[in-house]
Design brief:
4-stranded antiparallel sheet
Length: 68
């Protein structure tokens, strides 16, 4: 659902854990927390505070270290 970024909780280069909140979107007066899908490093944050986003937009990229 399209919405607006109302809070950014992490920055590029931060280590993150699975489920850690990265940013908060607001759509239709409801807030949705976007969380890290896995533990790793936040390598890209493609949105900023106040940005409008559309459905399907990549908001952030988390690099997961190799298990090998």
């Amino acid at each position: 659902m399209p919405g607006a970024v109302v809070n950014v909780l992490a920055k590029t280069g931060d280590p993150v854990t699975a489920g850690q909140p990265l940013l908060i979107l607001e759509a239709m007066k409801m807030q949705q927390t976007v969380v890290a899908p896995a533990a790793g490093t936040l390598t890209e944050l493609r949105v900023g505070l106040g940005d409008q986003v559309d459905t399907g937009t990549v908001l952030a990229v988390v690099a997961v270290p190799d298990a090998g």
